[in-house]
Amino acid sequence: MFESVFKQPNFKEIAPDIIQVDFLEPDFCYYVIAACEDLGTWAPAKNDKHYSTQDIHFQKEMLGLYEMFSDHFHDFIVPVAQQVWGVDPFELTDMFAIKYSMEGQKKLKLHHDDSYITGSIKLNDSYEGADLYFPRQDFSNKEVSLGSIILFPGKITHPHLCTPLTQGTKYSMTLWTKDAV
């Protein structure tokens, strides 16, 4: 079906303490979107009253994809982050797709993640607006390539938001982690 799912994990720092790592092949990004749309269970997280994002949690609803991503993340992405930041090992705790649409959620207010190191993957680019924006770093993911993961310390130093969607539908994936020590 796919020649390759994952890219070689080349990385670069693209903003203060934000690194971009090649992660998914673009064709596989579209596969993930199709799988999520086929599942069709977009819903806000039941335990989060502050942010009504439209999510699909892979660990609960797409276990095969969760395990495949988790293995690759731990084998290739965690070592990159350890090399860049000199941090202790960390492990994946949650992975979910988010959908922004003109009929549904169009933006997300400024917040911190409940995550040691957060990863965000742009699954498509056929939309306008809905940029992931970090005010303290004055950085937007607008120019981040499709399938790349950006990694950042999510809990304290990198508050972020999603600017309003103005056209199309945006899909992304978020990965949350915790310190493994």
Tell me the layout of helices and strands.
Layout (H helix, E strand, L loop, with lengths): L10 E5 L2 E5 L3 H14 L15 E3 H4 L1 H23 L4 E12 L6 E4 L5 E6 L4 E3 L2 E3 L4 E2 L7 E6 L6 E3 L2 E15 L2
Antiparallel strand pairs: 1-2, 2-10, 3-4, 4-12, 5-11, 6-10, 6-12, 7-12, 8-9, 8-11
Let me know the number of strands. Answer: 12
First CA to last CA: what distance? 38 Å
> Into which percent range does the helicity of residues fall?
10-25%
Provide the low-confidence segments as ranges: none
What does it look like?
- By secondary structure, the protein is α+β, with helices and mostly antiparallel strands.
- The protein is 23% helix and 37% strand.
- It is built from 3 helices and 12 strands, in the order E-E-H-E-H-H-E-E-E-E-E-E-E-E-E.
- The protein has helices spanning 26-39, 58-61, 63-85; strands at 11-15, 18-22, 55-57, 90-101, 108-111, 117-122, 127-129, 132-134, 139-140, 148-153, 160-162, 165-179.
- The strands form 2 sheets. Strands 1, 2, 3, 4, 6, 7, 10 and 12 form an 8-stranded antiparallel sheet that branches.
- The chain is globular and about 45 Å long.
- The model has no long low-confidence stretch (mean pLDDT 92).
